[in-house]
Give the backbone structure.
Amino acid sequence: DGRSDKSATISQSTPTVVATAPITPAIVIEREYVAPTNVELNNYTITVPTKEQVGSYIPRTLTGGVTERAFWNFARTQRKNVLLEGPAGSGKTSSPMHEAYLNNQGCVVVSHSIGIELSHLVGKQAIVNGEVTFQYGVLVQAMIKGDIYVADEIDFALPKILQRYQDVLQN
């Protein structure tokens, strides 16, 4: 990609789920195994999480007795974005992955670092077979497909990337 330091680049692999300690267990919802569905576009793959990927995740009951499932369903029906804050290991990444698994929905986790470029998220122009085309980035692909997009470690994102998130999330 032209940079001399290639130590920090976007991860295009399936995210790893870290086991978390549940706060208050809710009803565990089981569903039949569904083979992973991959959507590949311009060298990015958005995967529907499998049972193996979500591991032994235990949904929680949030403050006020609201289950995670009800929380995610409310956000979906109201067409609202969700910001999850909390300490490491509290389920900020595994909860949306589990929700994607339950809904047979794609989920992409982007762990921000200095190596993440705006073009990874939004897209870029490229020459394919002698023609100039626009290749969508992983954020745009997730938006088009209606997949869950997790901006992990967003506090490490560059200001130009935060500005694009602001553009996407306003209103």
